């Protein structure tokens, strides 16, 4: 069984020079596995071969930064025995290697030069190791190659996406915890990341947002150095709460609108609104998730607020106060205001004698239970 691994290489790595025979199949531009001092094995690209000194220079990108290292030939052959020629016998403790050769897909020097890697066939077991260990290593290499293939094939954003993933792997997540309840702020600003949708995933759009903690949003920006080496610039922004793309509407509600509901039962005034560019998830959050054209209104913040309002009304403290719930519903669209409970009647917004903004003539409806309040919105959808 043979697998193909495609890796993009940097601009300076594209020329392929044939080497003297005792260097085996090592040549500039190929990918080889190396072992770092910490024991981690990863793929790098050969950028220079020093025939006199028997070492090669390799490069790779880590945390968005290009790194390089000189490596002894012996160490390369140890991890990549298939690259060793007959004049350079494979060391006894050789690992199964990726047998690498430039693929035919060589195009634009800077971005499209690719290298293919072949996982050794089952009967190509290098000598010295037990069959079990050998099998395990081959499996690991195969998994790694397949993962790289899955991410890399045909993805023009592969290099920058890898940098973002590398950055995420190295983020200090030690302070990560679930969101904590709101402190007593008069204004609370929260941000929610929505997942990439089907179209964005198909187009292999970049996921440039990371939520490293419950209050921080990180935006990854792809930049280029003067020598055209790509690198990441990460901007961080702090908010009262930051929700990642796995957060549910319930969680968002719990840490945003729910404390406001409680405050209105203590003579407070509260406003909650969603703000964001089109398609960012305001309707999903406030109104509920869509399944095709149907919206599950019970999973939206509107419904959760209504539910809690009527629950709190039933508590003995509120019953004594004989409180009533009224709803109004209007839309601001194209600079005009429409009353959604009164056949979209156009309304005027004016300031009253005490400098309060009023939507003049807005219809108020009394609601006595949750289903009425919730049904009201569904009818209008
Ligand atoms: N957190 C999320 N999880 C899953 N899907 C989401 C999420 N947020 C948004 N979506 C999906 O993204 C799409 C756009 O979301 P939505 O319609 O809520 O955006 P919007 O901000 O209301 O856009 P507009 O301003 O154009 O009305 C919808 O298909 C929605 O189901």
TrEMBL record:
Domain (Kinesin motor): give its ranges. Answer: 186-381
Residues annotated as binding ATP: 276-283
Q: Where is this region: Disordered?
A: 111-136
Give the UniProt record's GO annotations in the biological process aspect.
microtubule depolymerization; microtubule-based movement
Presence of keyword Nucleotide-binding? yes
**Where found in the cell?**
Cytoplasm, Cytoskeleton
InterPro entries listed in its UniProt record: KIF2A-like_N, Kinesin-like_fam, Kinesin_motor_dom, Kinesin_motor_dom_sf, P-loop_NTPase
Instruction: Give me the Gene Ontology terms describing cellular component.
Output: microtubule
Predominantly, its location class is cytoplasm
**Entry GO MF terms:** ATP binding; microtubule binding; microtubule motor activity
Protein keywords: ATP-binding, Coiled coil, Cytoplasm, Cytoskeleton, Microtubule, Motor protein, Nucleotide-binding
Domain of life per record: Eukaryota
Say which family it is in.
Belongs to the TRAFAC class myosin-kinesin ATPase superfamily. Kinesin family.
Protein's UniProt name? Kinesin motor domain-containing protein
């Amino acid at each position: 069984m043979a697998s193909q691994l495609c890796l993009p290489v940097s601009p300076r790595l594209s020329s392929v020079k044939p080497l003297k025979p005792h260097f085996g199949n090592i040549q500039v531009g190929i990918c080889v596995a190396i072992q770092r001092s910490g024991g981690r094995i990863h793929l790098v690209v050969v950028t220079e071969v020093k025939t006199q000194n028997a070492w090669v220079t390799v490069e790779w990108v880590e945390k968005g930064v290009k790194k390089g290292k000189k490596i002894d030939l012996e160490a390369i052959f140890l991890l990549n025995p298939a690259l060793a020629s007959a004049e350079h016998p494979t060391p006894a403790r050789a690992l199964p290697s990726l047998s690498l050769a430039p693929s035919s897909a060589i195009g634009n020097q800077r971005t499209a030069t690719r290298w293919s890697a072949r996982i050794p066939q089952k009967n190509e077991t290098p000598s010295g190791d037990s069959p079990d260990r050998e099998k395990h290593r081959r499996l690991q290499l195969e998994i790694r190659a397949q993962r790289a293939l899955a991410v890399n094939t045909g993805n023009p954003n592969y290099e920058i996406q890898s940098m973002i993933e590398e950055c995420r792997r190295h983020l200090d997540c030690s302070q990560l915890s679930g969101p904590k309840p709101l402190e007593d702020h008069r204004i609370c600003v929260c941000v929610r990341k929505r997942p990439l949708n089907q179209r964005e995933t198909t187009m292999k759009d970049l996921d440039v947002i990371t939520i490293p903690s419950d209050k921080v949003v990180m935006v990854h920006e792809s930049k280029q150095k003067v020598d055209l080496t790509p690198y990441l610039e990460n901007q961080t922004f702090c908010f009262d709460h930051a929700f990642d793309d796995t957060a549910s509407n319930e969680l968002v509600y719990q840490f945003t609108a729910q404390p406001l509901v409680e405050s209105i039962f203590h003579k407070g005034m509260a406003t909650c609104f969603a703000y964001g560019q089109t398609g960012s998830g305001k309707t999903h959050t406030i109104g509920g998730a869509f399944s095709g054209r149907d919206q599950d209104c019970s999973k939206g913040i509107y419904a959760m607020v209504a539910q809690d309002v009527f629950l709190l009304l039933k508590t003995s403290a509120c019953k004594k106060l004989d409180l009533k719930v009224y709803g109004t519903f209007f839309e601001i669209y194209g600079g005009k205001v429409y009353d959604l409970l009164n056949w979209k009647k156009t309304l005027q917004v004016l300031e009253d004698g005490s400098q309060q903004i009023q939507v003049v003539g807005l219809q108020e409806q009394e609601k006595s239970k949750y289903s009425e309040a919730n049904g009201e919105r569904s009818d209008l959808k």
